[in-house]
Amino acid sequence: MTDVEIYGSMFCGFCNRAKELLAAKGVAFTEFDVSLDAGKLREMLERSGGRRTVPQIFIGGKHIGGWNELAGLERKGELDRLLGIAS
Which of 26, 42, 55, 68 has a Cα-to-Cα distance from 19 of 20 to 30 A? Predict the structure, then answer.
């Protein structure tokens, strides 16, 4: 499976939706809480081209965006391929 990283915060509803979708697919992910770690916030801003909203999601090191982009990939049937799982 492909590495998945989520930059988010503890009380972010869209972050929780993203984590629930990935968990339902059996996908492990690494989570960084940018509200608790200023270094991770700076890292997220750098990696995402300055996007300040959470979540910011990376699959295989590639920035895919936030919840709307993740959900859009799922609707189009492209998410499983990106994650490296059989559909």
Answer: 42
3-state secondary structure 52-82: CCCCEEEECCEEEECHHHHHHHHHCCCHHHH
- Would you state the pLDDT for residue 87? 58
Residue 15 tokens, joined = 């972050």
- The amino acid sitting at 87 is S
Single pTM value for the model = 0.94
Q: How many domains does the chain have?
A: 1
The domain of 74 spans: 4-83
**pLDDT of 61-70, one tens digit each?**
999 999 999 9
